[in-house]
Amino acid sequence: MIVAPRIYRRVGRALLVGAPLVFLGVFFLWPVGAILGRGLSAHGTIDLSPITEVLRDPSLRGVVLFTIWQAALSTLVTLAIALPATAALSRFRFRGRGLIVAALTMPFVLPTVVVATAFRGLGIQGSLLAIVVAHAFFNVAIVVRVVGASWVSLDRREADAARTLGAGPVRTLTWITLPALRPAIVAASSIVYLFCFTSFGVILVLGGPRFATLETEIYRQTAQLLDLRTAAALSILQLVAVVAALLIAGRATGHARRQIIGSQFRHPPRAGRERLVVAIALSPALVLVGIPLLDLVRRSFAHDAAGYRHLSETPLGAASSSLHALGTSLEVATAATAIAVVLGLALATSVTRPGQRSRSARFAELFVVLPLGVSAVTVGFGFLIVFDTPPLDLRTSWWIIPIAHALVALPFVVRATVPALRAIDPHQREAAALLGARPTQVWREIDLRVVARAAGVAAGFAFAISLGEFGATLFIVRPETTTVPVAIFRFLSHPGATNVDQAMALATILMAITGLIALAGERFHRVGRTGSVL
Amino acid sequence: MHARSLSLITAVALLTVGACGSEIGATGGRGSKTVTLVAHDSFAVSKSVFQAFTRQTGWKVRVLKNGDAGAALNQAILTKDAPLGDAFFGVDNTFLTRALDAHVFTPYRARELDRVPRRLRLDPTSHVTPIDFGDVCVNADRKWFATHNIAIPRTLDDLTAPEYKDLLVVENPATSSPGLAFVAATVAQFGDGWLDYWDRLRANGVKAVDGWEQAYTGEFSGAAGSTGDRPLVVSYASSPPAEVFFADPPTADAPTVSLDRTCFRQVEFAGVLRGATHPDGARRLIDFMLSQRFQRDLPLTMFVNPAVAGTPLPPAFTKFGTVPADPFTIPANQIGRDREAWIKQWTAHILR
């Protein structure tokens, strides 16, 4: 009856895996390869001697080592602060819960220059402590969202059974809950690690000129000195370190445990003791994130909220008002989110398909995360030398910005959705097929339903990433479409009260939008839950 | 070959999928000609000024911005075989030789070049045209010095005196253009002894940060809304008038003052990019940048001085800002030759 289902299916499958890989190949691998090739080619051959030169230079060797251990330390501190908060937010329902989730997500979009002013008050600027604390501040959101998404879909019955059989809460946590969460924790940690590994603003602004990482050094060699040879050598070292870290993370993930789509009902903290535990678990994260955020909001209302009142005016010398920048930011973020979610879901679906060979699936998962581990300036300068053929001179297209943002957001979508998809019990699919469901129907009724929650989180994150993204936007040639972070930066690069006021007001608005999106995401979860059957 | 055509297909697909965003990226259209100006992030111009250019010449202007002055120039060098635009704005005298050596510009002598004072015309080959100049100077927080009853320092030597211990914040010359200009000022004053001067500054508690924003809005006590505690900062001669201009509520007097004897002059140039698609439009644009319309707009948009002699300046600019009579200068080719060495030595003396 159906004429050529096999061909359709084959084409469909090829597209599913092909589209994301072509995207990554064209917009990541090709530009990065080209710029590395330009740096390392000498007389028509590839010359790898710069790498050994870099490794022989004691100060550059120091830079490599510092980059690795500061990222590791920052990741551990982030986990230590974020995991207890995640537990409290995933297990319990209480007043203000949604607001807390929203607040913890906000730092993600804030420009470092703005945050630095809030951190100054702590008196730790220019130290390793400042770097680590700031990294935790920015990245708590990743752990809360990625691990939290997995936590609420755990099947509670196992934990309940363990409790019934006499295991205490600690034992249940270490024997049942944490092992089940391991893939999500590893996924979140590796993303946090990569962000800290390649962080730029935090090192420069909060660490100060005494600290140098591979990322700041690559920026200096590329953008300031145009020493592409040294920059290429450093970039290759960066790639090697990133791949090694990802392989270790892959080992640590272990095998995802099959589970029936669960949906934990959060309950209010019962006894006084439980309330105390929730408060203690939440307080480190709340203090870390709350103090700088409140300080920022307070400053944004200085001079009778003049910063907000001036926003509709066009700043001198600018082409349009800051409100216009807000519109641009939302448009760019929408486009970037659409690209990242469509391609990310396609890739996640194809790597978790039953019967998929695990080696190629692992490779694809690793590949998609690589853009997080490569310097924005390397990708940006790579864009310049490959997309230069008219009529498709993409270098100056509006699309180059959402594409660059999508490269950063894609790994989030994949990392957030793969564990959920992998956790689906194949028996559920088989049962559905046995009952007569077509493959697309199976996908819609089972896969999509499971993945919707994770995809919602991922989409929210992709949107936030794009809203707050500044580094790559700065290195990529852009037509004069100012995004909000760029507008903030521009205000802060002029002296005077009205400029500072407007920068703070814009940053606060950016935060508020992110918070609203996070709140909407929470709402969405609730709707999704009442609809679920199991 | 294959990779390239594949990318074209993807790109076309992507562009068609999201045609909704096209009105933002689209320029020109309806038969008008568009000239593309590549500039650094600090470039700014009043909207009406480019509209006047379009009325006069029929050329529309599209502005592309990429990074700070150094990064923007390096991108221009990297793309010189297929330039991003037709004209480039924002090479300064500290990067002039790098731009000229890399052959990114094609010669063009602007029509009104003769009205620019000779001391600003640093490129005898006319590959680039001087458009504006500014001075990087130490700024002081007047209120701080008044409250503490200490005289405001006047010279570079004063800054190493014990009463000014722990008061100065400077920018890293490796990452900041005012930072590099201030190092050049010390080289101009002290010659081979410039590093000794920096050793003295270090002993006197100088603080270095990576960028102007951190130094000025973060560390400097005189900036509006600042939480900083250092009353001396390396900034611009135009920062005091900017403080007044952007004050809220309005003030009658500048909270800060620029120290005239600590200044290094920066001259900014524009030029026609070699291989430009519209070299004629680019030439018209360079001419326009020396016109009164453009020159008069410079002080209150980019806070720099017009290069054309006798351009009237707005009162807000002249009342609180001064143009130092005798700023430090260093020949562009010497800066080009020694820049990297200065940065290396400065890093070793101040940061390590």
Description:
The complex is a heterodimer of chains A (534) and B (352). With 534 residues, chain A is mainly α. Chain A contains 22 helices and three strands. In chain A, strands 1-2 form a two-stranded antiparallel sheet. In chain A, α19 (439-468) packs antiparallel against α22. The model of chain A is unreliable at 527-534 (pLDDT under 50). With 352 residues, chain B is α/β, with parallel strands linked by helices. Chain B has 14 helices and eleven strands. In chain B, strands 1, 2, 3, 4, 5, 6, 7, 8, 9, 10 and 11 form an eleven-stranded mixed sheet that branches. β3 of chain A pairs antiparallel with β2 of chain B.
Task: Please give the count of helices of chain B.
Answer: 14
Give the chain pair forming the largest contact, with residue counts. Answer: A-B, 75 and 80 residues
Largest sheet of chain A: 2 strands, antiparallel
Distance between the ends of chain A: 35 Å
Oligomer: heterodimer
Class computed from helices, strands and strand pairing of chain B:
alpha/beta
Structural class of chain A: mainly alpha
Distance between the termini of chain B: 49 Å
- Tell me the overall shape of chain B: globular
Q: Number of DSSP strands of chain B? A: 11
DSSP strand content of chain A: under 5%
Form type of chain A = globular
Major sheet description of chain B: 11 strands, mixed
- What percentage of residues of chain A falls in helices of 4 or more residues? over 70%
Compute the average pLDDT of chain A: 83
Order of helices and strands of chain A: HEEHHHHHHHHHHHHHHHHHHHEHH
Summary, kept brief:
Chain A has 534 residues and is mainly alpha-helical. Chain A contains 22 helices and three strands.
Descriptors:
heterodimer, A: 534 residues, mainly alpha, two-stranded antiparallel sheet, disordered C terminus, B: 352 residues, alpha/beta, 11-stranded mixed β-sheet, 39% helix, globular, disordered N terminus
